[in-house]
Design goal:
The complex is a heterodimer of chains A (62) and B (143). Chain A is mostly helical and 62 residues long. Chain A is built from five helices and two strands, in the order βαααααβ. Chains A and B meet through helix 2 and helix 3 of A and helix 4 of B.
């Protein structure tokens, strides 16, 4: 699953570490998500989208 | 043991250096395997294999306990880690089941002692669990 986390993170000037802290996961999880190697749960996808100020469907591309 | 403690105090992003943590677990696993190998192939001398096995087991237990107590420095619930643990446990359980099935048939033709079977199963489950955790940590997880 592709996503725009890296692009949106850059827009908000957020580091992986900061995003990870805000959504309550490890930095490695954010790294794997950005690379499309980990499909997050609906809850985590919602939290990430909320922090990045977008809708889930605009962050995660199915 | 103090040396091990000092190595683990070398902090990274989340308090515990994962690379060194994994290295220490691997060292413990290798010690266990060598101990079991020596016990099987050199059964006359019990002293050295038992000490090596005890050292390996103690190392794995201490490192895991250290990791558990240091958990408060990490996010409380990381769903990826939980998934990895579940997958590792499931895979380890199935592999152990397969080994038990194989041992059942081996035991029919080449009788083994209860001690050796129990020891093998006990260590096999712990070792395969540790290996699966390391494997899934590097591989993509998507279920």
């Amino acid at each position: 699953m592709k996503n725009r986390i890296k692009e949106l993170r850059a827009k908000f000037n957020l580091t992986q570490e900061e995003l990870a802290k805000r959504v309550g996961v490890r930095r490695e999880t954010i790294v794997f998500m950005e690379q499309g190697k980990y499909n997050p749960s609906l809850q985590l996808a919602h939290d990430v989208a909320k922090v990045l100020g977008e809708k889930i469907e605009d962050v995660f591309i199915f | 043991m103090l040396g091990i403690y000092n190595i683990m105090l070398d902090k990274s992003n989340y308090g515990v250096n994962m690379k060194k943590f994994e290295k220490l677990i691997m060292f413990g696993v290798i010690a266990l395997i060598i101990g079991i190998f020596l016990e099987i192939y050199f059964p006359n001398d019990d002293f050295i294999p038992i000490n090596i096995i005890s050292f390996g087991s103690a190392m794995i237990c201490i490192v895991i306990m250290f990791k558990v107590f240091k958990r408060d420095q990490e996010p409380a619930k990381d769903e990826r880690i939980i998934k990895i643990n579940h997958m590792s446990l499931a895979n380890s359980w199935w592999l152990t089941y397969v080994v038990i099935a194989i041992l059942y048939w081996v035991n029919r033709y080449y009788p083994m002692t209860a001690d050796s079977i129990l020891g093998l199963v006990m260590f096999f489950m712990v070792v395969t669990y540790a290996i699966f955790v390391m494997y899934f940590n590097r591989k993509e997880v998507s279920y």
